[in-house]
Amino acid sequence: MFEGGKLSQWRNDEMHSRFKTCLRLIYRSAVLTLTILLIGIPVRPQSVPSSPMSANDLARRVVSNELTFQDDHTNWMYRLEKEQYGKKQVEEIVETQVGSLSRLLLINDRPLTTKQQLEEDQRVQVLMTSRSAQQKLRRDLDAETLQGRRLFKMLPDAFVFSYAGGDGNMVKLSFKPNASFHPPSLEARIFHDMEGEMWVDCKQERLAGFDGHLTQTVKFGFGLLGHLDKGGHFEVRQAEVVPGHWDMTTLSLEITGKALLFATIGVQKRENHQDFHRVPDDLTLTEAADMLNRTIVVADSR
């Protein structure tokens, strides 16, 4: 049995834990909404329509195009450079049909120590030999893909778009929240409370960039459970990294707020994706690990 003070503390800890879990979901949803759709997809060149269309119709056409192309499940290997809370890391990533396998290469521009190398070896080994870890990887991939698609499909309805210029095949659309749209979930609410700009490659009808910021403070439980501050910023860029393949190249996320009135929320994250190489579509985790190990050997021999 809990004593009065301990019970109160337990309830506060439990609410704080649940809120942090919710924030992680929001954060992942916001990122995945705009990054999962950037999975490698072969391009089907299309001409710009000869008849004018509204900005919202163009956005809807791009969304439909992206969702259709997502059924292609090609796998890629690439290098990820990320910085979070002042800590820099470089990873090598290999995609497989059950999820992505990563290997840490550098921390703050320095090679891993012997201890850190062993820890990476153990982490990768567990993933290759543990059936439960592999099932979790698969479940996470499926859940994230479904969630990202669901939120992305809302984009033409959640925002009001307008033309804001362009450069060659690139057209810039500005967007703001659609007052008549009612977000069906907490994640959709965060997504809806943004305004900013979206870049579209009209020739190939691909999303080239999305830059949004929160237009107002987003409160949870009327502010009693916490809030996200106005001005929180999210930016994604993608490009045709190799002929016929578009993928995310840049991600930037900055969000601040409060949880349960006392815990500060601060997310600062930047990512760069580069050096894309196609890998077999039926690649196994073991084969992916072998590729990553060869990368380590090459790096050590330099």
Cα separation of the termini: 61 Å
Give the strand content. 35-45%
Which percent bin holds the helix content? 25-40%
Instruction: Please give the number of β-strands.
Output: 14
Low-confidence stretches: 1-51
Overall geometry comes to globular
- What is the gyration radius calculated from CA atoms? 21 Å
How is this structure best summarized?
By secondary structure, the protein is α+β, with helices and mostly antiparallel strands.
Question: What do you see in this structure?
Answer:
- 25% of the residues are buried.
- Helices cover 38% and strands 38% of the residues.
- It has 302 residues and is α+β, with helices and mostly antiparallel strands.
- It contains seven helices and 14 strands.
- The chain has helices spanning 4-35, 55-69, 114-129, 131-153, 155-158, 186-192, 285-301; strands at 41-42, 75-84, 87-96, 99-107, 110-111, 159-167, 170-177, 194-201, 206-214, 218-220, 226-228, 233-242, 245-259, 263-279.
